[in-house]
Design a protein that fits this description.
63 residues; alpha+beta; three-stranded antiparallel beta sheet; 30% helix
């Protein structure tokens, strides 16, 4: 049987103005960059680590 992978829906809810450059780069690596933009990413430790770094700027839902 095929294993279904968990997916995370990540939405940027706050601006990157006056944030450190590494947080901006992390958002870009996630596929974000503008408020309201949403991406779906596979749930794995590296994505979770990136989310942890910018948790104050994003909203995360498991789908």
């Amino acid at each position: 049987m095929a294993e279904t992978k968990k997916t995370l829906r990540i939405t940027q809810v706050k601006s990157t103005i006056a944030r450190p450059g590494d947080q901006l780069q992390t958002l870009k690596a996630l596929g974000l960059g503008k408020i309201g933009r949403t991406v779906d990413q596979v749930d794995n430790p590296s994505i979770r680590g990136m989310i942890f770094k910018v948790k104050h700027l994003v909203k995360v839902e498991e789908i």
